[in-house]
Amino acid sequence: MVIGNADGGHAQTWLKPSLEIRAVHHLIARYWNVVTPPESTGSGTNMPIILYLHDHRNEDVFQYDIERAFSITRSTASRVLALMEKKGLITRTGVQWDARVRKIELTPAAGGIVEELQRRSRQLERTLFEGFSDDEQRRFLTDLERMKANLYATGLVGRETSGCASAQPQGDSKGREDGDRAPTHVAPAGPCPQRPSEPDEAV
Question: Within 13 Å of residue 190, how many CA atoms lie on the same side as its CB?
Fold first, then answer.
């Protein structure tokens, strides 16, 4: 094991993988903020969400989808989406099968900057993978997925609404709150275990 065993070593050595990932995350956010024009209503936080909504523009997208796509908590997603709505980047409209669930769509204003955001996003990806072979890029992305899976496997973070939520068939609003996707099947009923609230995080 590269980082040693649990009986020795300095804290910095033990935390190095997570510290490096966090550092890259913050550098990416800073990069987005630098390349964003001052007059733009976009930001390093909501640009990825704009691109996600554009990529899924032919589907119904709800807050739950944003939470899962970006591995963020419900409170963080709610806060970010509220700010995006205030800036005129998205609309949230009700659906017939549940008054508490709102579909999220880009406004024409946000749609007008998608092409530029895509160009900047491609440039960022090229910068991140400069000097990486195709195999190295694929391996890196695979390793990130494995790390995410390891964290999910602890049962302490993420995916609280998949598997333990008392879902109802589509058309029945019982058991869902604003932001949840309407399930297309009946999931096992029963209360979810209570967990401590997770802190807000950046997208």
Answer: 8
